[in-house]
Amino acid sequence: xxxxxxxxxxxxHQDRNSYLTKKFEELNLEVNFVFQDKHELTxxxxxxxxxxxxxxxxxxxxxxxxTPNHESYTKHLNNMEIAVSIDHFxxxxxxxxxxxxxxxxxxxxxxxxxxxxxxxxxxRLTIEAYNVYKDEPWIIYFGKGLCSSMRYPxxxxxxxxxxxxFKKNYLSHYSDSYALNKKAALKILERSKPFYFAVxxxxxxxxxxxxxxxxxxxxxxxxxxxxxxxxxxK
Length: 234
Fold this sequence. Notes:
By secondary structure, the chain is an alpha/beta fold.
């Protein structure tokens, strides 16, 4: 397996840039930064990746939440949400053209690393996922996002290895830190391009009965948005 790292990062966030630059060096990670400026979105680019259709959006939301005939979602994504989601989908397209054994690790720039054993821990997760599912599509969420109250295990989670849970209802909590294989990227593109939600919700729809959705038993990262990012990472 070959693992490639990407970080979706806006240059305007200097506090995040300083933290990430230092942390990637400490972790000895070669990370490619990607960024779609919301001010440079063209209508043709938006139309290629994003579609606003309340009927279809609520149909998908009903599948995600297991609530048929859902009618409560009325939100149109703003340009920042569209731009970030496009960044994720462009990475899925890139992964779809890689060798079959390639894994992409996708980070957003508000990710916070829990310790310096990240490389070793992530390698263990990807090996265990491969040993269980081989070449089937899988995605690993290895962070905690903003859900500080999220606890494992629960009835939604089934232990499949020493380090991984399989999540039965597919609902993701975040998109700031995850890894996926090529077949998962192909499944996401097949099912969710164009997207109707921001990427974290769209992944929940794409994975539903389609991709093995896995969670690390010991989270490796957490999400910095919603906190005092600078003071959190001094």
